[in-house]
Specification:
By secondary structure, the chain is mainly alpha-helical. The protein is built from nine helices and no strands. The chain starts with 6 loop residues before the first helix and ends with a helix.
Length: 192
């Protein structure tokens, strides 16, 4: 029937799933801490109480109980780890745009995080939008940092990969018929 575009995420899932569960627990705690660290550094609010309440609210919006539906490891690797990786990538991109120095290791890690995060369809689309806005704004203001271009080019490559993988169309059809059988009758506005 075809392969899915989430091959990078699936490789991580296979590796982590084969390890003893304690490794997933440790990595998952690390990802939650990374989300907190990134939000702490990305959110430009001076009032600490408001900042932390906002971050807590953001984290609590996710329906954690629903994560067990497909298995905790699979769902965290496919969703919350993707958010952590994307936030780290955005943090490094923001530092580059703000002319703050970053190490080569941080830059390489951010590219790896981007490669992982953009492998998920929703995050790829969101990253394309955000990076596109950053790029357009920086070009307009003549403050483009060339070290941001690899993130944008990687994003375009992932987007093309997602659009051309035959498994995505198959999965879409199966999920619509299984979970949304009346999807075809919905209006365009209702689908949005």
């Amino acid at each position: 029937t075809g392969w899915s575009s989430r091959n990078v995420i699936e490789i991580v899932l296979i590796i982590v799933g084969a390890l003893p569960a304690i490794y997933w627990h440790i990595l998952d705690i690390g990802m939650v801490m990374l989300i907190g660290y990134c939000l702490e550094n990305l959110v430009p609010i001076k009032d600490q109480k408001i900042k932390y309440m906002g971050m807590f609210s953001f984290l609590m919006m996710y329906y954690v109980v629903g994560m067990r539906s497909a298995g905790w490891i699979a769902v965290t690797i496919n969703y919350s780890w993707v958010v952590a990786a994307a936030l780290y990538m955005f943090l490094i991109v923001q530092k580059i745009r703000g002319s703050k120095g970053i190490s080569k290791a941080s830059y390489a890690l951010a590219l790896l995080a981007a490669f992982y995060a953009m492998n998920q369809e929703q995050m790829c689309g969101m990253s394309l939008l955000v990076l596109g806005i950053f790029l357009a704004r920086d070009v307009y203001n003549r403050k483009l940092k060339k070290s941001i271009l690899p993130f944008f080019l990687l994003n375009i490559a992932e987007f093309v990969w997602i659009l051309t993988c035959p498994g995505n169309a198959c999965r879409k059809n199966v999920e619509i018929s299984s979970y949304f059988p009346s999807y075809g009758t919905y209006s365009f506005m209702y689908k949005i």
